[in-house]
Specification:
By secondary structure, this protein is of the alpha+beta class. Helices cover 28% and strands 34% of the residues. Bound molecules: acetyl coenzyme *A.
Length: 158
């Protein structure tokens, strides 16, 4: 990798014949089964630098008014440089272009970093899915030393 300067990054749709960037996707969502289930009905966008994928986000329609960012991840060496924020802004633009009026994103109550990022980008807490992670994931998940149990769903008007 020659650079980790996000100004040299661009974001594009993943081509149908390209392999999904699973290492990144599984960093945000550790269940391949869950990831594969939403990839099949989603658009996958990748952030590129020096022809390498350094970030990914996944847009999946909820209904004709609302879409959801199902997954967002930045490669470890590139985190904390504003790429996540730029990918969220790109997702808002892509969602507007597709005619959506609202966008949602869900994360564990334990995901303090992503919760900062999403609220800084204009998302507000909408509702809680109690026991989402204990009900839908076969293995117990831990983050920041806390068992992941509940999902916070945040929403933003576009
Ligand atoms: N703690 C505090 N603030 C944070 C954190 C953190 N861990 N992460 C991001 N932020 C804040 C930053 O302070 C920054 O605010 P600022 O612009 O005022 O300085 C803002 O959020 C933007 O940060 P970015 O640098 O754009 O975030 P980054 O490029 O690191 O991407 C992401 C954030 C996607 C969460 C990345 O850290 C990552 O890939 N983590 C691992 C995977 C993951 O947890 N994905 C989210 C799971 S939920 C889901 O996928 C729907």
């Amino acid at each position: 990798m020659q650079t980790n300067n996000p100004s040299e990054m661009d974001i594009r749709l993943l081509n149908e014949n390209e392999e999904a960037p699973y290492a990144l996707l599984l960093d945000a969502d550790p269940s391949k089964e869950m990831v594969d289930r939403y990839l099949a009905k989603s658009e996958v966008f990748v952030a590129m630098a020096n022809k390498e994928i350094i970030g990914v986000y996944v847009l999946c329609a909820v209904d004709k008014h609302c879409t959801e960012i199902k997954n967002i991840a930045v490669a470890e060496g590139f985190q904390g440089k504003g790429i996540g924020k730029r990918m969220l802004e790109d997702a808002f633009e892509k969602a507007r272009q597709r005619g959506y009026k609202e966008i949602i994103i869900g994360t564990s109550t334990t995901s303090i970093g992503p919760l900062y990022l999403y609220q800084k980008a204009g998302f507000e807490v909408d509702h809680l899915l109690k026991n989402f992670f204990t009900d839908h994931y076969p293995q117990p998940l831990y983050e920041n030393g806390i068992r992941c149990k509940h999902m916070i769903v945040l929403k933003k008007d576009l």
